[in-house]
Amino acid sequence: MSVISHDQKQQFEHDGVLVIKGFYDVKREINPIQKHIYEIIGLVAKRHGIPIQRPPFEEGNFDASYLDIIKNDRNLGAEIYDLITQIPSFIRLISSKKSETLFCDLRGTDMAGIGAGSYGIRIDNPHEEQFRSHWHQEFIFQPQSMDGVVFWTPLVPITRDLGPVIVCPGSHQKGLCVYTRHGVHANKSGSYRIGLSNETEVVSAYDHVAPLTEPGDLIIMDFLTIHQSGFNISNRSRWSIQSRFFNFNEPTGIEIGWRASITAGSDVEKIFPENFI
């Protein structure tokens, strides 16, 4: 049984992006993740002897005291970031049968995969540009298969100030772009240095949409849809879950051997030399 309508499927095929309201059950699927994040924040503070005062857990305050902790020691943000991806309820969410069914229905396949290093919980802190994900297509960082879909769902209500994900509808139709490590993002670290060649010219050719979403909502994007993280100018971190499904049967994936993500060690410049300058 399909989990989306025929019209939604057609819209996704045309735009390369679709918002599905209330796809996940907040009480059953989202709240357990938030509760574990709340507890991990408390445990990290305790481990490092950082005194914090927090109200009892509620859906809206799961990240209470997080900003106080990283103000004390920014490195503790990385510790929390690594720990929260080990939450069982998070693993259940990204590998749920409902999500797999959605991908298989969209792509007409029964051979779905979840790439190594292709999932996580992003924490985008206020006014931090160094780790903001700028304009890109997912496939260049997740070279498992050209036929892939990003699943993006927020853990907090996304407002304009928090910086919703910004998408270029229809951009997937032109294929894989050309990239460089020596463009406007060359001052960033690691894979964040990689950006679109002639970025301004490329993204100006499309309309930009920035959906406002709530916990439980799901944004799906084609692996070739150009998008970027919004600018968080609020006083709270933007917490969101990303996972990626890919089609094992797609020819490019077969040819390159369903590579792991760039963060798991894949050298995309060697895999796609014709797409780098």
Automatic annotation (TrEMBL):
Q: Matching Gene3D superfamilies, A to Z?
A: q2cbj1_9rhob like domain (2.60.120.620)
Look up the record and name the cofactor or cofactors this protein needs. Fe(2+)
Indicate yes or no for the key word Oxidoreductase: yes
Query: What SUPFAM superfamilies does this protein's entry cite?
Result: Clavaminate synthase-like (SSF51197)
Q: Which domain of life is it from?
A: Bacteria
The protein's matches in Pfam families, at most eight in alphabetical order, are given as: PhyH
Keyword Oxidoreductase in record: yes
| Keyword tags | Dioxygenase, Oxidoreductase
Q: Which GO terms describe its molecular function?
A: 2-oxoglutarate-dependent dioxygenase activity; iron ion binding
Name the chain's protein: Phytanoyl-CoA dioxygenase family protein
Q: Give the originating organism.
A: Castellaniella ginsengisoli
Q: What is the lineage of its organism?
A: Bacteria, Pseudomonadati, Pseudomonadota, Betaproteobacteria, Burkholderiales
